[in-house]
Each structure stands twice: as C-alpha cells, then as structure tokens.
Design goal:
The structure is a single chain. This protein has 15 helices and 13 strands. By secondary structure, it is α/β, with parallel strands linked by helices. It folds into two domains: about 240 residues, 3-Layer(aba) Sandwich (Rossmann fold); about 80 residues, Roll (CBS-domain), CATH 3.10.580. Helix 14 links the parallel strand 11 and strand 12. The chain is globular, with a radius of gyration of 22 Å. It starts with a strand and ends with a helix. Bound molecules: adenosine-5'-diphosphate and magnesium ion. Pfam families: ABC_tran (PF00005). Belongs to the ABC transporter superfamily.
Length: about 325
C-alpha cells in the first residue's frame, strides 16, 4: 500500500533520513519509533509530501506520490499531529470541515459528516460543534484532531505523537478509545511515537530508526526477541519485562500450558467460569493489569468468543515465564 524505496532526506550536508526502504501493508497499524531526532517526523511528512525527499521514491498503491495531484493525496491521507494543531480561530465544526471544504462538498453534506464524526469520537455535537479549541480539554482537542483527519474518510492516516501532549491518565484513556475506534474503521495507519509501550500497545509492526537509518522492521515480538543488532536489543532494555508481557498473549500461554504436564482444567460445557475473562489474543500484560489482586482464576475465550479454559493466576504466571523462555531460546 505504502512503499518507500531508498528514500533519503538531507538538510544541507546533514542527513535527516538515509536510504529508507520498507512497505506498509493495507489495514495495518505501522509504528515509526526511535529517539528524538532520528527522523520519524521527516519520514511521515515525506509520505504526505509536506517534505520532499532528496532522493528515492514513495509509492502509494504502486503509484509514485509525485505523479499524483496534491488534492488526490489530501483526500487519501489524514494527518494528526502532536499538540493537535487545531486552527484556534475556527470552531470545532470548522476545524473538522477543513478538508471537505477544500474538496468543495456542499454545506448539508459537511454538516452531516461533522456531526457523525463528533459522535464517533465521543463528543456530543450539540455541546461541542460551536466551541473554540481553547474551550476544550487536551483530550477533547485530540479527539477533534482525529475527527478532522477522518473527515473525508481517507484510507491512510498519519499520526505524529498524537498523544504526546496529554497527561498520563488522559493519555491512557484517549489511546484506549482511539485504538478501539481504529479497529472498527479499518484504515492504514502510520503512527509516530517515542513511547515504546504505546507502540507495543497499538502497532501490528514497527520500524525502529536510529540516526535516520532503519535498524529493524518487524512485529513488536520480533524486535524484542530477535533483535537484528545491538542497538535494537539495547533500545528495549529499560522496559523489557513490561514489553514482553505486552507481546505475549494469554493464547500463547494457554498453548504452552496445554502441551505440558500440568494442563489447566479445560472448559467443559455448562461450566460457569468465575473470575475475570480474558480473550486469547489479549496480552498477558492487559489481563494482569486489569485484574483485581484477589482474582484467582481466569476464563480464557477464543476468537469465536467461546470459553476454552479456566486457568489460575499461578498457572498463567508460570506459563508466561515458559513462553518467554522459549522465545529467548530461539533468539540468535
Ligand atoms: N527543516 C529542517 N531543517 C534542518 N534540519 C531539520 C529540519 N527538519 C528536521 N531536521 C533535522 O532532521 C533530523 C530528524 O528530525 P525529525 O524527523 O524531526 O526527528 P524526530 O521526529 O524523530 O524527532 C533532526 O536532526 C532534525 O534536527
Ligand atoms: Mg518528531
């Protein structure tokens, strides 16, 4: 869907990014991560032609973005930035209508779309449509920023540190909602963040950059357990345990438990499991984090939402260590 071919950007003698090549698949959430100044924003801006590469090509659906009129590009790509970037003298409604206006939609269509989007991001139009951005909290502004990016229903959304300006609690909440929303609307997302926890929480695949160069592209789990070089390995060091918990699912744990001696009591029909429920594709981290300390056993549900097993917290924990051990053994 989006392909970068040997893309470089120089400012004078200084390289911002060098020889970037990777593909972003349709429908995935692709994270660009790395320390400040490594070239994340530059890369994102080249995808929507806010910055012109010094060399190389960027293709969207096989076509060079330079051969597409900028209006087509605008319709295809929504952009959400750090500190929201709402126009201060526009109302919420006018902000959301920016791209539809450029595309010369009629007033009726714009008004309907704006209301629909506001509801989608959890803001009641009657209350919020006519407010100015400075009459909104940070979290509300971020939602409006997202609604604006979604306005013309673009298949691609670029997000640059979208939660960067929020306090930790609001951030957690807005990020959870956005994640849910993105799941339901099936877009191709490129998410820039310097927060690895956020990247592991949100992204299907990641590209880790350092000094403008790709260090590794892969799933969070691949980067964590099969790092291609020392930089990748050391990049995750300080959050390692949490990231491992985020990248291992209860399904992985169930599988390893079932293949070993102390098999958990399997779910049998009519069994009313007590204790918190966990989906097989939930991360071990999210299950443990959300559970009450006194939770003793968990009921695990498969993709069809059928309960498959009941496991105790001790089994879950020891299973986690076994999966982790297995993944580490395969390393190298
Ligand atoms: N307009 C510019 N002029 C000169 N240097 C720039 C410009 N934009 C970015 N850079 C430099 O390019 C490098 C990458 O910047 P950027 O892509 O913003 O990094 P990140 O988003 O990962 O923090 C940095 O060294 C930055 O100083
Ligand atoms: Mg940046």
């Amino acid at each position: 869907m989006i392909e970068l071919q040997k893309v470089s950007k120089y400012y004078g003698q200084k390289a911002a990014v060098v020889d970037l090549s990777f593909k972003i698949e349709e429908g995935e959430i692709f994270g660009l991560i790395g320390t400040s100044g490594c070239g994340k924003t530059t890369t994102l801006k080249m995808i929507n032609r806010l910055v012109t590469p010094s060399s190389g090509h960027i293709l969207i659906n096989g076509e060079d973005i330079n051969s597409q009129p900028s209006e087509t590009l605008r319709r295809h790509i929504g952009y959400v930035i750090q500190n929201v970037g709402l126009f201060p003298h526009y109302t919420v409604q006018q902000n959301i209508a920016t791209v539809p206006r450029l595309l010369q939609w009629d007033d009726q269509r714009i008004s309907e779309r704006t209301q629909q989007l506001l509801r989608m991001v959890g803001l009641e139009p009657e209350t919020f449509a006519r407010r100015a951005p400075d009459e909104l909290s940070g979290g509300q502004q971020q939602r409006v920023g997202l609604a604006r990016a979604l306005a013309a229903d673009p298949p691609i959304i670029l997000m640059d540190e979208p939660f960067g300006a929020l306090d930790p609690i609001t951030k957690q909440q807005v990020r959870g909602e956005v994640k849910q929303l993105l799941k339901n609307i099936q877009k191709t997302i490129v998410l820039v963040t310097h927060d690895v926890g956020e990247a592991f929480d949100m992204c299907d695949r990641l590209c880790l950059l350092d000094q403008g160069k790709v260090q590794q592209v892969g799933t969070p789990r691949e980067l964590l357990f099969n790092p291609q070089n020392d930089f990748v390995d050391s990049f995750f060091k300080s959050n390692r345990l949490q990231l491992e918990m985020m990248s291992i699912t209860t399904g992985d744990i169930l599988e390893i438990l079932q293949s070993s001696a102390d098999t958990p009591r399997s779910f049998s029909e009519g069994f009313e499991g007590n204790g918190p429920r966990a989906a097989a594709n939930d991360s071990f981290f999210s299950v443990f984090q959300d559970a009450k300390p006194e939770a003793h056993s968990y009921v695990i549900y498969d993709k069809e939402d059928q309960p498959v097993a009941s496991v105790t917290s001790e089994q879950l924990l020891s299973g986690f260590y076994r999966v982790r051990h297995k993944l580490k053994e395969k390393q190298g």
